[in-house]
## 1
Amino acid sequence: MTELLDKIALYLSYPFVQYALIVGVLISLCSSLLGVTLVLKRFSFIGDGLSHVAFGAIAIATVLKLTNDMPLVLAITIICAVLLLRTGQNTKIKGDASIAMISVGALAVGYLLMNIFGSSGNLSGDVCSTLFGSTSILTLSQLEVWLCIILSVVVAAVFIIFYNRIFAVTFDESFAEATGVRSKLYNLLIAVVIAVIIVLAMNLVGSLLISALVIFPALSAMRVFKSFKSVTVCSAVLSVACSLTGIMLSVACETPVGATIVAVDIVIFFVFMIIGKLSSKSVR
Amino acid sequence: MPQLKCKDLSLGYDGIEIIGGLSFEIEKGDYLCIIGENGSGKTTLMKTILGLKQQLSGTVEFGDGLKRSAVGYLPQQTDAQKDFPASVWEIVLSGCLNKMGARPFYSKKEKQLALENIERMRLTKLKKRCYRELSGGQQQRVLLARALCATKDILLLDEPVAGLDPKVTAEMYALIDELNKKDKTTIIMISHDIRAALKYADKILHIGDTVFFGTKEEYLSDSSLGFGKEGAV
């Protein structure tokens, strides 16, 4: 045990591990904040869909040989997020179908592009690291860390400032709109913010596992807590705690970062499910 | 000046008209029931009045110092709300948003207003409870309290008693009636229940194959609708 602790202490002294922890905490905080809203609005899968869009965008950036793919990926993902959330309500192709369509489509086109135009010799390695995050969180540059800090602060600030309105739009869009809350605008805001979070989170867990980061903390918190505020706070705390634990475990046990974080999230979900069952029984 | 004036309204989806030629006026303190078959456009009409849907043609005007954002609305419940983790307090408070302007957080005044309406709807004991754990009647009272936070003047109710048992239905009707008689709140209600509509309302809007707008007495004596003397009620 002490050997393991020593090992963790040693790793903590490395700047790249510190960066990973900072970025991990911030991303998991942001993703959990909006996770509650997305789960309640029945948009759990939007994270998955958008992350595949981001994967496709990265493929395009690779083909174009862009050195900094962030702006392009961000732009494409935001556009798709807006389209997906807008068409959620009254369209010919329903929300879940359009998400599935865009998600699978982007994945296929992305892989195809990488396959045809890719210059790297290790294609399956590239694809795998984009999908599962692998080690990219441990190779963050200082610039990326700063970018992540700034964007996270913006996301958190937007969420706090618009908290009451986001609640109203999530709970009852027609009432909110009827009483003069511009719900379309807030849906747009939610779409843009979620796109930013997903592009950020790709570094952490890769595009396949982002959904887990968005929905697991929210679902766990909803098992136990009964008000919107307590669910939001709890899911933020859970998300940060799970990511920290996951990163430390993966460093100590040399397991893949993204998958380890998600595994911790899953364990916590079951723990909360049992707590929820027990506490509702004791009330009755 | 009437509180609400609809003129030659035509409603529908994707350019296909469901109902046309709707004209009616609502004065302050009126109790209007909108009745008609399923799919005749009752909810669409309400959403058009609220500005949630665009009419195909015609006009909706608010008068008497009433602003469109200062109306109270009780929508039909959505599936998402049935397992929504929110406390009664949070939901009622969200009715105050139209008084906030650009302010991000609620002030004492809004909290006071929410508290008053919680009391009025006899929900004080349930204030901290979770919405999804309440009974159907209690949930409707929460939504009514929220609507009252948004307005004192006009309430639009979309089938407020749907799915409630007879006893709770009667309580709900009594509560709405009290708001209308005591506080002079204008009520516009969509209802399937013609018996209750005729008991409480003073004006009737019937939409469907035949369109009728007028007082309850006129409605009852209008033989073309098949009510009245035959006792279809």
Note: Chain B has eight helices and nine strands.
## 2
Amino acid sequence: MSKAEIHDVRYRPFDGELGGSSLRAISSMARWSALRALGARRPWTAKVVPVGLALIAMGPAVTALGVKALLGPDITQRLPTDLVPYGPYYQLIGFAILAYAAIVIPETICPDRRSRVLDLYLSTALGPRDYVLGKIGASLVPLLAVTTIPLAVLYIGNVFFAPHPLGYVQANLREIPAIIGGGVLIALVYTLLGLAVASLTSRRAFATVGFVLLLIVSSLTGGTLRHAAGFGPNARLLNLQNLPIWLAQKMIGGSNGAIDKGPLAPVVTPDLGLLIAANVAIIVICIGILTLRYRRSAA
Amino acid sequence: MIVTRLTFRALLLRKRSLALLLPVASVLFFAALAIIRGDVTPDTQAIIVGRLLITTVTPLVALVLAVTAIGDERESGTIVYLATAKISRLRIAAEKTLAATFCTLLLLSPALITIAVLGSHLGIGWDNIGRGIAATILIAAAYVAAFITIGLLLRRALVAGIIYILVWEGAIATIAPSAERFSLTAWGRAISDGGLYGITTELVPTLAAPTGSISLLVVFGLAILLAGWRLGRMDLP
């Protein structure tokens, strides 16, 4: 039995040591927002969707490595080392990345507006810019789980299944920074797009549907202008869904091997310079929208 | 038909429903573009009707309206007043479904007129135009019924619907050949594209149109029954 007694309840100013930097506040905001979006301290039903989608994104990598493990070394050595090539892998999991971003990103930003705690945040050590940076971190890090980890697992698995692991690494050295860079690029563009859309509404559901509609309609617009209207491949620059994915594929390089049909079939993409410019434009526009939406007066 | 009337007003008299005209407008845009450029082929018809209208636009419009039809009632607590009215739960579910289906078709009506214009421009005959319109109506009804049921079963029905549309319909059912037998949009495309000649075979599902029609009607009927059953057993706030 505790002997503690409450004699008085009142507010008092903080007399502890001040951090002096907003970095801790940003990282704390990012950490707790990310955990909330992933379902921490919430019922198991809130955790199922992010975890399930991350597992779906891992599926092709685990399957490719599992096939090699089941077939044994004799048959495996006759198969191509990259059973699922790295570049086209993004095409396979594109819908999982989209769904993950559509569900997780609005969760980090919409509840704050809906429950009107934004002013409360901004009355603390956080400024509007710190708040936005924290939310970018909160959305970016979980998204990396579906854009980077599956390819990293596939690469490490391929190293272990290669007849000469060191030789495989030497021959595929440029893929390491490309996998990390490509994953970060896709996660960053999707994060900023998702946050820009979510910043326009306080309702999570509208943000989710708006984000999906924006990406799918833009994807259809680009594809239809290319196929149905006969414009060149640069018409695909309107395809917001695949712009970062195509640039990441170009970073990784390599070929699709003998695959010319199905989901791994190569796609005629816009020119590299235009792809880079389009991705930079998306990033700049989204940062502009977020800055406008989270000015101190607007917040 | 009080539930139908109330749902109809709740769904259409708000700005968010008008935002759904944006994806619908994409159908008009692509059809107009194809006609202006003069390269309307059976493949164009299949892409605009099958891939754009039936696979993408209709499910998303149906999802938003169906989830709103039941979700707003749950969120605001007015579902209690509905449940205490002297109307059977099955009838409430059926009227909600019918109202949301009608609203979906109303929002899709510019696209339905467009595919009729596109079809007559291509000269595919009124039977094929009718198949496209019938497929859209059936797919809208099936999706609305399914999503209303999901809205009664799950609190986060929108998330479940988005995952279903993106992951199952958008990815798995297009990659795995046998999965299209369990895909609502493949059933719809079997109706709309099955009668077109000179079309790329990859664009047409392997299913027959009657199979698609019966399957969609079965989903519609079962979903309403399940929604009625669920409405009678769920804890209301």
Note: The first helix of chain B runs from residue 2 to 12.
